[in-house]
Amino acid sequence: MQEALPDHYKPWMEIALRLPHLIENRQLRAHVYRMPLLDCRFLKSYREQRLAHMALAAITMGFVWQEGEGQPQKVLPRSLAIPFVEVSRNLGLPPILVHSDLVLTNWTKRNPEGPLEISNLETIISFPGGESLRGFILVTVLVEKAAVPGLKALVQGMEAIRQHSQYTLLEALQQLRLSIQDITRALAQMHDYVDPDIFYSVIRIFLSGWKDNPAMPVGLVYEGVATEPLKYSGGSAAQSSVLHAFDEFLGIEHCKESVGFLHRMRDYMPPSHKAFLEDLHAAPSLRDYILASGPGDCLMAYNQCVEALVELRSYHINVVARYIISAATRARSRGLTHPLPHALEDRGTGGTAMLSFLKSVREKTMEALLCPGA
User: Fold this and answer.
1) Which of 136, 138, 105, 133 minimizes the C-alpha distance to 121?
2) Does 316 belong to an annotated binding site?
């Protein structure tokens, strides 16, 4: 991925690349206040704009949360706020750290010729959290990588429906199932690389936003941009387009409350990702096609995809329970939490009541199974 910006933006990158040190030593806010107001017009390519967004987003999260949940910074200085909002508008992204910053833009290969594996990957920008933070980001990169064959398969599947090709559709569904199973296996690496207590007590705060967050009930003032505070959700796995795409293709319909949150998270995706999901939604219905075709291999393969997705969502619930619910209990027993985080213990960094949301999404996925006699 892109790792450097034009020299004009050195003040941004010098801070962004030293974030863990500056945050841990409580020096980041002082550096940000001394930062010059830079013009965005020298950001020429899309990749440069994405790297700039990631750098400014990471500096913003560190700036706001440097002192923890008890003392968030309520005003983003103009030298950070103005260029961040401008770059965000150019990219069609919100001015906060999003999944496409933390994960999709934030990796590089140690050996450019080597494999896309965790041993050959490195993050570009970090927060406090050391190896656990690196593991959290890079395992999520591998989850996205595991999804690629599945995304290709559903494009093939949509074409197969248009062509009325049962054989091609069956192939696509089988490939989609394998991809979903690979995603679950990739997610399992979280346990090898990420310490739950470090994730909960050190990393999580830097992914938290200022919407639906009791620590910042009125939002954040972006100085020089708006006089009123603005509210944006923190990072969330729901900002990845992968499971949205699988749900759209398989025709899985979630309950009204979940749909509201999931659709809001699409505004936190690159516009091309959101457009892809809208195209999937507008495409001919896979479920209708399979129901019209009657019992057979395609119906069985469809159900196997849904079952694999249920297993993935069950596994995700277990991961969340370990990394947030159990970790919160341990932190409380050791007296490590400030009074405020109790309100956040059952909430994701995106602001949802996590377990109830994830369980609802899993139940609705289960309900999508088709009866062979349907």
Assistant:
1) 138
2) yes
Q: Which amino acid is at 2?
A: Q
CA distances from 296 to 143, 237, 368, 370 (A): 31, 34, 17, 12
Say how far residue 179 (Cα) sits from the centre of its chain: 19
pTM over 0.90: yes
Are β-strands 75-76 and 221-222 bridged in parallel, bridged antiparallel, or unpaired?
A: parallel
pLDDT tens per residue across all 374 residues of the chain: 667 899 999 999 999 999 999 999 999 999 999 999 999 999 999 999 999 999 999 999 999 999 998 999 999 999 999 999 999 999 999 999 999 999 999 999 999 999 999 999 999 999 999 999 999 999 999 999 999 999 999 999 999 999 999 999 999 999 999 999 999 999 999 999 999 999 999 999 999 999 989 999 999 999 999 999 999 999 999 999 999 999 999 999 999 888 999 999 999 999 999 999 999 999 999 999 999 998 899 999 999 999 999 999 999 999 988 888 887 888 777 765 544 444 444 455 444 477 888 999 999 999 999 987 55
Q: Which H or E run contains 199? A: none
